[in-house]
Design a protein that fits this description.
This protein has about 350 residues and is mainly alpha-helical. About 45% of the residues lie in helices and about 0% in strands.
């Protein structure tokens, strides 16, 4: 993919100074100038050469090595070896059937063939505006979720096991606009699978996500406890494919989950609400992986991906402007009564 942004602008040196004060702190153990240069070269190469891994997601630029390897201080040879391994399952980038612009961007949502066109659009949009403005306009705004085309971008953002949110969040966390553009493009070619838990009623005329401050909020952990105690969720799904578990759980129990999600509101400091979600996600991971008499199962797909998403949420919430009546919120995904395993 050719871009009018050069590599330095798309993938500058990772920089946490771009985050607002109060964002979760991360210590980068021993990243060196050499490993940082290697990281940036890999991200640039990945951005130009690869589409996705056989129709799912491009893991090459995600946390599996960028966060877990580079930020832990591995040297450039390990980064290059990891890139060689992960890129072996990628699909080469290909030109989309037509150009996507700010006027026709809703016409090809959910179509993987237009990933490259969406990527080019969002690179240029970020260049002209900035990452936060693009995220608000194309993900959280009313126009991005309610219209005749039914774009439902927030649903796409958290579907497919939260990958678009995670990918975009790392772009904000490390100050890498190229990663943000990839995350929003990834969102655009996803299907929408959460109409029950993220309905159009969540949005309001003249703004973005509706904030319900008319009732007392229930803590996220209490909401989770009530779900666990509800007999409607007793017939949990069991399937080796986590995406299947996610979809069936939503189809069967989405209305009931929505009842509980509505008990949680975005009142008070947004940092406190994000912290609640972090605790809830970690509990899902810990409880979901524990079974008496057996070793802990650090299940990769549903619980662990949720834990990874909690790393992204503070960075995203720090960069999105919070306006009293139109505050965006990191939507809760459908919890699985019986987490699947990889």
């Amino acid at each position: 993919m050719n871009s009018t942004l050069n590599a330095f602008q798309l993938f500058p040196k990772p920089n946490r100074d771009c985050l607002a004060s109060g964002a979760a702190s991360v210590t980068w153990l021993s990243a060196t100038p050499s490993s940082t240069t290697t990281l940036r070269n890999i991200l640039e190469d990945n951005h130009k050469r690869w589409h996705s891994d056989r129709g799912y997601h491009n893991y090459t630029a995600q946390w599996h090595w960028r966060r877990a390897l580079w930020s832990l201080g591995v040297n450039e040879s390990v980064l290059e070896a990891a890139y060689k391994t992960s890129s072996s399952i990628q699909i080469p980038a290909f030109a989309s059937p037509r150009t996507i612009d700010s006027n026709n961007w809703k016409e090809h949502l959910g179509d993987q063939n237009y990933y490259n066109a969406y990527l080019m659009l969002f690179v240029e949009e970020i260049k002209a505006k900035d990452s936060s403005a693009v995220l608000e306009e194309y993900i959280f705004s009313e126009n991005a979720n309610i219209s005749d085309e039914d774009p439902a971008m927030v649903s796409r953002f958290v579907d497919e096991l939260i990958h678009p949110l995670i990918h975009t969040g790392y772009g904000f966390e490390f100050g890498l606009p190229g990663i943000v553009a990839e995350g929003v493009a990834m969102t655009s070619v996803h299907s929408t699978k959460s109409p029950k838990t993220i309905p159009s009623s969540l949005f309001q005329s003249g703004g973005g996500v509706k904030v319900n401050a008319s009732k007392q909020s229930v803590h996220a952990l209490i909401v989770l406890a009530r779900i666990l105690a509800d007999s409607r969720f007793a017939d949990g799904e069991s399937n080796p494919f986590a995406v299947v578990v996610y979809q069936r759980t939503h189809d069967k129990h989405g209305d009931a989950v929505k009842e509980y999600v509505d008990q949680w509101t975005l009142d008070g400091p947004i940092e406190n609400k994000v912290e609640e979600l972090i605790w809830a996600i970690v509990v899902i991971y810990g409880v979901g992986g524990y079974k008496d008499g057996r070793p802990f199962n650090a299940d990769f797909i549903l619980p662990a991906e949720s834990v990874v998403s909690r790393d992204s949420s503070p960075s995203l919430s720090s960069d999105i402007a919070r306006v009293t009546d139109t505050s965006p919120v990191m939507p809760s995904t459908v919890p699985s009564p019986s987490p699947g395993s990889e």
